[in-house]
Amino acid sequence: MHTSHDLRRTEAVRLDTVSKIYGRADSQVAALRELSMSFADATFTAVMGPSGSGKSTFLHCAAGLVRPTSGSVTVGGTDLAGLDDTQLTMLRRDRIGFIFQSFNLLPALTVMQNITLPLQLAGKRPDKNLIRSVVQRVGLADRLGHLPSELSGGQQQRVAIARALVTQPAVVFADEPTGALDTRTASAVLSLLRESVDNARQTLVMVTHDPVAASYADRVVFLADGALAGELHRPTADAVAARMTRLGAWEDENRQQAAPMTSGGLY
Ligand SMILES: Nc1ncnc2c1ncn2[C@@H]1O[C@H](COP(=O)(O)OP(=O)(O)OP(=O)(O)O)[C@@H](O)[C@H]1O
Q1: Does the C-beta of 158 come closer than 6 Å to ligand 1?
Q2: Looking at domain 4-102+169-181+191-257, which CATH architecture does it have?
């Protein structure tokens, strides 16, 4: 029999009735409306929805970058509301990895220095075996002394993935990780993310606009107007595209491509 403690341990991230209201009084926007969602250990979830449906806000709340207006977020069993800003920063550093569309590598640092940066920031001694295994997994063993500017887009994203994995976080949040990559490079990066879930038992939550990218996930959750608008398990790209069409997403998508979103912040 499972105790509630056991059940909680199998959840990497949990949101309970999370709302996020931006602005004040007469100009309020409810970006998330009492959203409840759970992400089990070693699962890959894609988050989709029309432009403005709350995907980025969800990601930022779930990752402890933005505090919800109400409701609770739990990461690895810790309720983020109980942490002050310093504790929250430490939890993010130790338990959460980020992968962005724009890679966000430091241009003056080599591949190896970029990958080990989170460990240095945390004052942790790098585990050489772990680093070697992560570097091999992402196929960068012969590029460790290179600068990001000497790498292709796909290679740079693989550095960012390695950087997100070296701290062995409870969960990795990816914000449009293949948005800047061509189709073939994107599929190599998505296969790598899939492997990190299947082989390294990582938990991955990925915001994407791309039904093909979403089809690599175990589950797709759809947001509309800041609320859960359904989910698909073992998704195919066609089924995801059909659901997005029903949500009226593609008009917004075209606008999105005309004015791409940029991700901010390094971690
Ligand atoms: N800092 C902010 N201040 C005020 N309103 C905001 C802020 N950030 C987001 N919003 C609003 O909250 C809603 C949800 O925005 P969010 O960026 O989370 O959506 P999204 O689904 O990620 O959109 P996109 O796919 O276009 O990136 C939108 O109506 C947006 O205008």
Answers
A1: no
A2: 3-Layer(aba) Sandwich (3.40)
